[in-house]
Design goal:
By secondary structure, the chain is an all-alpha fold. The chain is built from five helices and no strands. The chain is extended. The mean pLDDT is 80.
């Protein structure tokens, strides 16, 4: 794996989760926590970035992307996926840029009611 072993990933994720839980109560967005079970989240019930204020949410998103998943390193080392992904659909290229115009749709619907 180009970003480390599975064990290393789980360690990075565990550290991220601990940091999230330690910062959670300091960075809540009061308008978004209605109906959210904070006790459940604080006891390891997952990560919900939607309940954080905007600044904290962006910081945790960046940290997850860069430190846990290591996406910038992955893109730098192996590149980004191309637009031409394998497909078994033999009509893929024919319908790739197909566009139905409103005129064509209105003509076909009016002829079907005659």
């Amino acid at each position: 794996m180009f970003t480390g072993t599975g064990k290393e990933f789980l360690e990075r994720y565990s550290q991220f989760e601990k940091r999230y839980q330690s910062e959670l109560l300091k960075n809540l967005d009061v308008g978004k926590i209605q109906g959210v079970d904070l006790d459940f989240i604080m006891n390891g019930g997952g990560i919900n970035l939607d309940i954080l204020n905007t600044e904290a949410k962006r910081m945790f998103e960046r940290e997850y992307k860069e430190d846990v998943l290591r996406l910038p390193k992955a893109f730098r080392d192996v590149g980004s996926p191309g637009i031409q992904m394998p497909s078994s659909n033999k009509y893929r290229y024919a319908f790739r840029y197909g566009v139905d115009t409103e005129e064509r749709i209105s003509k076909s619907s009016s002829s079907s009611f005659k």
